[in-house]
Model the fold of this input.
Amino acid sequence: MSIADNLGKVSERIQKATEQAGRQAGDVQLLAVSKTRSADELKAAVACGQRAFGESYLQEALEKIQTLADVPDLEWHFIGPVQSNKTRAIAAHFHWVHSVDRLKVAQRLARQRPESMPPLSLCIQVNSDNQASKSGVRPGEVPELAAAIRALPRLHLRGLMTIPDPDQSAQSLRQRFAALREQLYALRERWPRPAGAPESPYLDTLSMGMSDDLEDAIAEGATLVRVGTALFGARPNPPSGNLDRSTF
Ligand SMILES: *Cc1c(COP(=O)(O)O)cnc(C)c1O
Done:
């Protein structure tokens, strides 16, 4: 199967799930997760109209961003664990970061986001399984971190992201996704959209759902699904030097 075929199939799955959930066509954005894939593979997706790409490993991402610098309108999303020593490059080269789970990281991103660029869009990563070993904040910690991030300059808090443990029943996955949606709604209630700013970025994003569970995520309100394998095929090993495999 070619990337073009796969992209068509995934788009169809998204469209069908959106429809079945009674949601508006176009409600759900596809983020093509291109970690470990070559610049040529990304170009194949670009040729089919894909513009938003998700990367987890900074060094290889920067190389691809540079290789594709001439392609207009690309949108780069950092979705991997954010170590403090990587925030400067992330702030300078990405449009979005989905995986913020510490105030310290958000503070560094705010300080390091270049003045010449628009605000960086952020999601808070939530550990929806509530397991000590996983990245993401505990659900109970979301409101406090959200309030602190909203007070920082140069950042737009856009919503919440989660990567639930895939080894659970579809029913319990659905519960995790539904819980994330309820948490986002709670944030919106606390900070309603400012009147007179209908177009400004708002708490509008539920980043949840991957190749195997995007239908369940869309049924529970996902606005962005992060899909790698179903687009590009099974992933090769991550580049050497990336020891943090926690989201791989
Ligand atoms: C790799 C990755 C994905 C894509 O997973 P697939 O199962 O290949 O679709 C999505 N989200 C994050 C955070 C990832 O690291």
